[in-house]
Amino acid sequence: MNNKINVAVVGATGAVGREMMNILEERNFPIGQLKLFATEKSKGKKFTVQGEDYVVDTIKPGSFKDVDIALFSIGSTPSKKIAPQAAEEGAVVIDNSNAFRMDDNVPLVVPEINMEAAGQHNGIIANPNCSTIQMVLALKPIYDQVGIKRLVISTYQAVSGTGKDAIDELEKQIKAYVNGEELESEVYPHQIAFNVLPHIDIFYDNGYTKEELKMERETKKILNDDSLRITATAARIPVFYGHAEALNIEMEEELEIKEIKQLLDDTQGVEVVDVPGEEVYPLPVQSEENDQVMVGRIRKDFSVDKGINMWVVANNLRKGAALNAVQIAEELISI
Amino acid sequence: MNNKINVAVVGATGAVGREMMNILEERNFPIGQLKLFATEKSKGKKFTVQGEDYVVDTIKPGSFKDVDIALFSIGSTPSKKIAPQAAEEGAVVIDNSNAFRMDDNVPLVVPEINMEAAGQHNGIIANPNCSTIQMVLALKPIYDQVGIKRLVISTYQAVSGTGKDAIDELEKQIKAYVNGEELESEVYPHQIAFNVLPHIDIFYDNGYTKEELKMERETKKILNDDSLRITATAARIPVFYGHAEALNIEMEEELEIKEIKQLLDDTQGVEVVDVPGEEVYPLPVQSEENDQVMVGRIRKDFSVDKGINMWVVANNLRKGAALNAVQIAEELISI
Prior knowledge:
By secondary structure, chain A is an alpha/beta fold.
């Protein structure tokens, strides 16, 4: 590829799309041409990236002709339609939706973990689910060192994971509460302010949500290990930014807590935030200013052999989505 | 005891104390005399219970002389001092604090589970922790039927569990946010609005919080089984009322999901709320109007033999505290 890269952001006006533009700017991504795409209703919106003004357009045949890398963050259904068009027109698509993640022909990539898989792409690379990315980053050093037998996961997920409409809905409900007005729900099936919904994405007949099964399946694919045993409960809480996860981990072999802390400390993209006596532990609000995956509350689980508990927090829009996508792009162009 | 019972509410102006008065009224508790106690700063406050007006007073020697049952909801430290006085002056104390829960001479009681233990009291009966009460109620029928080997718990706890000051703090932070002002924290060490704190009660050297260890120890005491293996992560979330819990349960023997639902359905104080396809599952906001312990998201855990996951929600101030205490009192007077 050239020194300057022609980039497209598809879904530019969404919560993740906006972060993609922020991150391209912050990280001085070597943008040649930049194209911003969204649906008809956002056509004409303007954004400034790296000092240049850009206008949002809709996608037409040929839209991706000169594009080197297309960062997609639209829903699964539109991605299934448009990503193959972009790939056919010559772009490498980095897709943030669920559309291609479990496709055997599509690599599912966290750059710090399995960038080598990205080399096998056929025009599309999938970005994992936000909850999966932060979890596998925290698990990988432990997995490599001693192996992992079983995981029990509970998530505490921010509304921004649903998208901009959900951020607006929590915002509106909070205002309605303060003004003594009725709280209205459109994006979620129930009030999200001052509530917890044990429901993210659709339900399957086995009682699990798609989000819960994504965490299982994507983790197995990224670590390339189908023998891992994983169960999850995913819950949405009234937080704007930053997903938290309580992880209960059964390791294959013993590892001391201080060794685990050292391993995590030595891991790129991970930061140990764990001084409970001084009230220092990972918090969603901290993730607004910190792109690292924060791990804390690391402690022995006395209820099982070789067990530990830990608490993992990261910015779901950035490392959980836009940043991971841009990092994949950076690695691609450095190859 | 007489037909009419002389009752004292100690800590009457707190979040739980107020609920105690509400519940005495709602359930037509046969009150003879009622005394309301609090600290100096609340002296003179007035409350109406069952149509009678009462004035809050401070405690003096002899305050409990004519009291049959004293419902305590003050901190652990004052309880340790005042509960023995009340017991010595002839009252039966039902104490909501942590002061006596693990005391071998004090029964720890959930009336639906181990009311027989209450008969052994020496003047003081302890009310379990709010998170423990709702959990053991949901576990008991499974425990009785097939036994439980191991529990992995993650909690999503409301601020009202901390007390009235914490409710006010979340309220203030929400208002500050809407008004574009700075969010100030006094009760919690960090902002609670739009955040999650993996920190309830103090930290021990082993990395656990007191809340997490309470759930383990109290459950073992109530079920009278030290062989249970339990590990917990307790987190505070920006919800006013209603604690939620993600429970991962390893049973001793196989039990089908539909049998578990039937068992829970047949359990007094428990309600199965579990039609995920219709977006029906337990929610903290529902617990404001429902005194049952709600259980939903009941599903097989495919990662372990004889495993299940479930989601348990209850009103932490009512069944988790005030209601459980009044129910103990009701059972005591019916003996």
